[in-house]
C-alpha cells in the first residue's frame, strides 16, 4: 500500500479536510454546526405543493379551449381531475405537517407517507437552494421532519428488531460468545 499516504493529523492533509468532510457544498473552511428545525423543510414543501397546484390549474386553463373543440364534457372532467389533484396534494401536505408536529399519525395509509415525501423531497431541496438555503440546513430540517414522522408511525408497545449485516467472510465460529 505504498500509494496511500498516512497523515499525522487531519490538519496535515493536503487540503485540510478530515475523513468524512467530502460534502457537496463544503468550501474548505470549518463552520458552525448546523441546527435547523422542522419549519424550513415544511415551508419549502408548502412552496412545492403551491407551485404544483398552480401549475396544474394553469395548464388546465390553457388547454380548456382546445378541449372544448373536441367535446363539451372534457373541460369539466379536466377541472375535476385538477381539483382532485389539488385536494390530494393539500391533504397529504396537511397530514405531513400534522404528523411531524403533533406526534400522531394522520396519514390514511402507510403508502401515503412515501407518496408525500417523494412528491416534495427533491423539489423542496431545489426550492431551498433557489431561496439561498444550504443543503446542510435543508438536510438537517428534513431529518428532523423524517424522524418525527417515523416516531409517529411507530406502533406503541411493539418491539423493534435490529438487523445487523455482517460480511460474508466473518464466519459464525469467529464471533465471540455473548454472555460468557
Task: Summarize it.
This protein has 4 helices and no strands. By secondary structure, the chain is an all-alpha fold.
Structure explained in plain terms:
This protein is mainly α. The protein has a domain at 34-153. Helix content is 56%, strand content 0%. The chain contains four helices and no strands. It is extended and about 70 Å long.
Describe the protein's topology.
Blueprint: H1 39-70, H2 74-102, H3 110-130, H4 135-153
Helix pairs in contact: 1-2, 1-3, 1-4, 2-3, 2-4, 3-4
By DSSP (H or I, 4+ residues per run), the number of helices equals 4
Structural class: mainly alpha
* Strand tally: 0
Radius of gyration over all CA atoms, rounded: 24 Å
Uncertain residue segments: 1-13
Give the rounded overall mean pLDDT. 77
Q: What oligomeric state do these chains adopt?
A: single chain
Q: What does the main sheet amount to? A: none
What would you call the shape? Answer: extended
What percent strand? under 5%
| Secondary-structure element order, N to C | HHHH
Distance between the termini: 38 Å
Helix content: 55-70%
Key structural traits:
180 residues; mainly alpha; extended; disordered N terminus
Amino acid at each position: 500500500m505504498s500509494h496511500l499516504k498516512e497523515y499525522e493529523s487531519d490538519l496535515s492533509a493536503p487540503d485540510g479536510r478530515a475523513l468524512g468532510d467530502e460534502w457537496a457544498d463544503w468550501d474548505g473552511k470549518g463552520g458552525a454546526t448546523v441546527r435547523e428545525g422542522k419549519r424550513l423543510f415544511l415551508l419549502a414543501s408548502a412552496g412545492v405543493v403551491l407551485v404544483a397546484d398552480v401549475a396544474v390549474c394553469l395548464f388546465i386553463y390553457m388547454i380548456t379551449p382546445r378541449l372544448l373543440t373536441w367535446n363539451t364534457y372534457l373541460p369539466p372532467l379536466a377541472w375535476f381531475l385538477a381539483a382532485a389533484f389539488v385536494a390530494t396534494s393539500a391533504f397529504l401536505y396537511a397530514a405531513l405537517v400534522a404528523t411531524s408536529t403533533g406526534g400522531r399519525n394522520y396519514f390514511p395509509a402507510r403508502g401515503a407517507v412515501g407518496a408525500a415525501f417523494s412528491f416534495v423531497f427533491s423539489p423542496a431541496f431545489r426550492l431551498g437552494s433557489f431561496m439561498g438555503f444550504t443543503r446542510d440546513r435543508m438536510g438537517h430540517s428534513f431529518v428532523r421532519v423524517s424522524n418525527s414522522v417515523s416516531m409517529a408511525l411507530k406502533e406503541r408497545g411493539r418491539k423493534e428488531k435490529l438487523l445487523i449485516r455482517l460480511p460474508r467472510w466473518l464466519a459464525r465460529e469467529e464471533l465471540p460468545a455473548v454472555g460468557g
